[in-house]
């Protein structure tokens, strides 16, 4: 018997991509809402409550509204928005976060998927905190370079229309230093202080890389770049979507440049450690619409339904 799935926000950037993934699956029956009822609360409530799994691919306020509509105890919600990522009762949708996370996702009926920048930041730093290399009290900074599809339909239209010249250069943003991913970045790494975080959106569709520069003096005394890479490799051993690259990745150093789009069209995260005698630079790369959004949501569904090993993501 097929699992019944509904995507609330089926016409948005994340929803469309989830539907592409689901279309390849014979074990999933997708409920679709009529075009003229896409924002009709009663019809959305009916479909949400008819689903085994419902994805919320909506702005935050609409996600909160949708969650409040669900009374069927069997419906599992997987929310792609920022609304519930540190909310009590919701499990964070990052199976690789730590031991026990998969089991938590199997049992959960409320799953909040990470933000795209946050996924990369957390996957790069959580192992260092868990291994005792980076103290929870550490003060860190991060930048993120991202494609414009991260900004949803609105930003895509801005870039693909008659775009003004300033959109052709990288644009730093969130300069009030209050980016909406900071709470989840702290809560799911264990860091007690928010990083100084500067995202930069560039004139390409998708692909994202978070970089975290660290002086070795910021780490446990005596730490080396080798130990940093080792901590990542040990944490993610056996994880099929996480690739810990060789220390000082030779291909990148030989080419001289880092390829921000190198994980596009995959659900993969590549983790890089570059290092000198006194410094390390951690870089985490993903497709913001893959492991940064829709791929991650489908992966969480697979984990929840207990079909993770068999299905559809690369
Ligand atoms: N794009 C990305 O890389 C990522 C996005 N996310 C998050 O996922 C969520 C969806 O983002 P994204 O797909 O990019 O956004 P889009 O703007 O592309 O799509 C949002 C969709 O939600 C629909 N919608 C808005 N309000 C309602 C409502 N009240 N009822 C039903 N549908 C509604 C919109 O309808 P309409 O078409 O009429 O505007 C639109 O189709 C957001 O919370 C976003 O922050 C998370 C990680 C990464
Ligand atoms: C380029 C761009 O604007 N990106 C979005 C993040 C996309 C994402 O992860 O959004 P949610 O947290 O809403 O899920 C931003 O930085 O706000």
Automatic annotation (TrEMBL):
Q: In which pathway does it act?
A: Amino-acid biosynthesis; L-arginine biosynthesis; N(2)-acetyl-L-ornithine from L-glutamate: step 3/4
Q: Name one GO molecular function term.
A: N-acetyl-gamma-glutamyl-phosphate reductase activity
Pfam families the UniProt entry points to: Semialdhyde_dh, Semialdhyde_dhC_1
Keyword vocabulary terms for this entry: Amino-acid biosynthesis, Arginine biosynthesis, Cytoplasm, NADP, Oxidoreductase
Q: Where in the cell is it found?
A: Cytoplasm
For this UniProt entry, what is the primary localization, expressed as one broad class? Answer: cytoplasm
Q: What is its EC number?
A: 1.2.1.38
Report which reactions are catalysed by this protein.
Answer: N-acetyl-L-glutamate 5-semialdehyde + phosphate + NADP(+) = N-acetyl-L-glutamyl 5-phosphate + NADPH + H(+)
Q: Semialdehyde dehydrogenase NAD-binding domain location, by residue? A: 4-105
List the catalytic residues.
116
Which PANTHER family does the record cross-reference, listed alphabetically?
Answer: N-ACETYL-GAMMA-GLUTAMYL-PHOSPHATE REDUCTASE, CHLOROPLASTIC-RELATED (PTHR32338:SF10), N-ACETYL-GAMMA-GLUTAMYL-PHOSPHATE REDUCTASE, CHLOROPLASTIC-RELATED-RELATED (PTHR32338)
Q: Which family does it belong to?
A: Belongs to the NAGSA dehydrogenase family. Type 2 subfamily.
Matching HAMAP family: ArgC_type2
Main function: Catalyzes the NADPH-dependent reduction of N-acetyl-5-glutamyl phosphate to yield N-acetyl-L-glutamate 5-semialdehyde.
Protein name per Swiss-Prot or TrEMBL: N-acetyl-gamma-glutamyl-phosphate reductase
Q: Which organism is it from?
A: Roseateles rivi
Q: Which gene encodes it?
A: argC
């Amino acid at each position: 018997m097929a699992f019944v799935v509904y995507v609330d926000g089926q016409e948005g950037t994340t929803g469309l991509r989830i539907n592409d993934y689901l279309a390849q699956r014979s074990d999933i029956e997708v409920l679709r809402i009529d075009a003229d009822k896409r924002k009709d609360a009663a019809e959305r409530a009916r479909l949400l409550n008819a689903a085994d799994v419902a994805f919320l691919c909506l702005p935050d306020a609409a996600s909160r509204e949708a969650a409040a509509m669900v009374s069927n105890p069997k419906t599992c919600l997987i929310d792609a928005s920022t609304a519930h990522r540190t909310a009590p009762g919701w499990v964070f949708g990052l199976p690789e976060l730590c031991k026990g996370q998969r089991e938590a996702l199997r049992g959960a009926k409320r799953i909040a998927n990470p933000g795209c920048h946050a996924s990369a930041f957390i996957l790069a730093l959580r192992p260092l905190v868990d291994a005792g290399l980076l103290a929870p009290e550490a003060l860190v900074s991060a930048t993120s370079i991202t494609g414009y599809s991260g900004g949803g339909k609105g930003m895509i239209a801005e870039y693909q229309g008659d775009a003004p010249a300033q959109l052709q250069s990288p644009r730093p943003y969130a300069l009030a230093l209050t980016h909406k991913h900071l709470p989840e970045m702290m809560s799911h790494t264990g860091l007690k202080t928010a990083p100084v975080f500067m995202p930069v959106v560039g004139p390409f569709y998708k692909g994202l890389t978070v970089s975290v520069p660290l002086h070795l003096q910021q780490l446990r005394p005596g730490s080396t770049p080798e130990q940093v890479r080792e901590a990542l490799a040990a944490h993610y051993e056996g994880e099929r979507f996480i690739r810990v690259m060789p220390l000082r990745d030779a291909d990148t150093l030989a080419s001289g440049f880092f390829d921000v789009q190198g994980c596009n069209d995959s659900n993969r995260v590549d983790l890089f450690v570059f290092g000198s005698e006194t410094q390390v630079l951690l870089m985490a790369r993903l497709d913001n619409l893959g492991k940064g959004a829709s791929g991650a949501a489908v992966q969480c569904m697979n984990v929840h339904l207990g079909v993770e090993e068999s299905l559809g993501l690369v």
